Amino acid sequence: MAAVLECPPEPDRSAKPDLSDVNANGTGLKPIERLTSDTRIARINAETDAQTVLRYSSQFARDYIRSDYNFCASKIAVARGGKVRALENALRDTSDWFRKTDAWLARHDVRTIEMPYEEIELVITRPLSGLLVRCLTQFDRVFVKSLATVVMKKISPDDRARLLANAERRLKHIVQLCMPDNDQYDFDGERREQ
């Protein structure tokens, strides 16, 4: 005698699925809800209640402000222990490097160039965030002065490109320091081996 296989009954499909969470692009996927940099910094109880207006001319400064500044400022606001020390050391080293580079460019004695600029208001959550804003201001000053030195043929365009690449690398390093959690840093600011 042959065995008869019965299929399970089909589920009731009369109810329509809830499409209120479906992504607007029609893929049917729910949108990913993450804290963006703006919402992240808005949720921080800041030590300082300061804001500043930053003027910038360079594309790098614009991209850094739009993609990294609020992330760094929020991570700086919640940093504790060794992470604060690591960030403080890196920000002071970066600011000092920019100061020396600016002085080196000033020795070339070139006329200043008026560059078009944009302005943005930034929230400063802690004094270290203010130091990051200072570094961004110094970067933009180096950007403009180095352009003037190239125009006056005091340095080559390749030298300027290397100078700006070094400056950008230093600011991107700050973002890398912000990423790990507080417990991944020793008290002296060194990153623990993983």
Strand order, main sheet: write it out. Answer: 1-2
The largest sheet, given as strand count, sense and whether it forms a barrel, is: 2 strands, antiparallel
For the terminal residues, how far apart are their CA atoms?
65 Å
Shape by Cα distribution = globular
- Sequence stretches where pLDDT stays below 50 over 5 or more residues: none
- How many helices in DSSP terms? 5
Mean pLDDT: 81
Instruction: List the domain count as a whole number.
Output: 1
Strand residue content: 5-15%
Helical fraction equals 40-55%
Rounded to an integer in angstroms, the radius of gyration calculated over CA atoms is: 25 Å
Overview of the molecule:
Helix 3 runs parallel beside helix 4 (127-151) and helix 4 packs antiparallel against helix 5 (157-178). The protein has 5 helices and 2 strands; from the N terminus they run H-E-H-H-E-H-H. The longest helix is centred in the middle third of the chain and has 25 residues, at 82-106. The protein has one domain. Helix content is 51%, strand content 7%. It is mainly α and 194 residues long.
List keywords for this structure.
194 residues; mainly alpha; two-stranded antiparallel ribbon; 5 helices; 51% helix; 7% strand
